[in-house]
Specification:
single chain, alpha+beta, 2 domains, four-stranded mixed sheet, three-stranded antiparallel sheet, 12 strands, 42% helix, 18% strand
């Protein structure tokens, strides 16, 4: 390599280092534009060139992660895939079974990362750099009940423990199915952070009547506090819902206007 090439490489390394100092764990075209003071076209070409040299790895169009010198070709660039969420899916948050594990509602670890986002999603599932994501599209009015976590310099929003429980009742598939949701709910009822009024408030704000039907049914089944059962009963909407929309539910628990699988019917009380 001639001296000019060596100087260009050194200069490029310095430029990339400056961008990484400003951007953190992930690099976007806008980061390069701001640091280098160049057009988007020039910035995009620079990032693509550094990827071809093995200094960056492309995660998605316009999004890159730095490659440590010690990394082998088979290894992942990202140590923490959660850092992708604010970059790619904000406004939104991590929830479902992923949040349930974080809050110790379950010991079961799902490799899939469950994300709730206000951004339009073309598919409910996507693998980004070998990490599987599953998405739920939500309206902006559903952006509440979140906690902030810091991973390095990246701020990540996660549903708080109460919102996590309500989301699982809103969509049991996000919690690995109703059996696992019941287990998570049982764990929540034994936590010192349990807050019945907060749970009811979040259910009201979510605005899905099926939440209180499922919640009331399982609250009785698990001998939850009476005030929770009563609040759920007050909020029963017309029509019937299914305990788990993915399961056959031939039996109706009239008290909760809830269709349940045969194996759940015998647990119903006051029917």
């Amino acid at each position: 390599m001639d001296p000019v090439s060596l100087n260009l490489t050194a200069s490029s390394r310095d430029q990339l280092a400056a961008i990484l100092r400003a951007s953190g764990d992930l690099v976007q075209v806008d980061d390069a534009v701001k640091v280098l003071g160049v057009s988007r076209s020039v910035a995009a070409k620079s990032l693509a060139r550094w990827e071809s040299r093995g200094w960056l790895r492309r995660l998605r169009r316009g999004l890159y992660a730095p490659v440590p010198l010690s990394l082998t070709a088979e290894e992942n660039v990202l140590e923490d895939p959660w850092t992708l969420v604010p970059e790619l899916f904000a406004p939104g948050y991590i929830g479902g079974a992923t949040a349930a594990h974080h809050w110790d509602l379950t010991e079961q670890l799902f490799r899939t990362i469950f994300v709730y986002t206000t951004r339009p999603v073309r598919t409910k599932e996507e693998t980004i750099h070998s990490f599987p994501f599953q998405f739920r599209h939500i309206g902006e009015n559903r952006l509440f009940g979140m906690a902030a976590l810091w991973r390095g310099r990246t701020k990540i929003l996660l549903s708080d423990v109460h919102r996590t429980v309500v989301d699982l009742f809103d969509d049991p598939s996000a919690g690995g199915g109703i059996r696992h949701v019941e287990s998570c709910f049982a764990a929540y009822l034994h936590m010192k952070e349990v807050d019945i009024s907060r749970l009811v408030e979040y259910g009201d704000r979510l605005g899905n009547g099926a939440v209180f039907k499922r919640l009331g049914f399982l609250a009785e089944r698990l001998h939850a506090p009476n005030d929770l059962i009563q609040e759920c009963a007050k909020r029963l909407t017309k029509g019937n819902a299914k305990l788990d929309p993915t399961l056959a539910a031939p039996r109706l628990v009239k008290r909760w206007r809830l269709a349940v699988p045969d194996s759940w019917k015998e647990s119903a009380t006051h029917d």
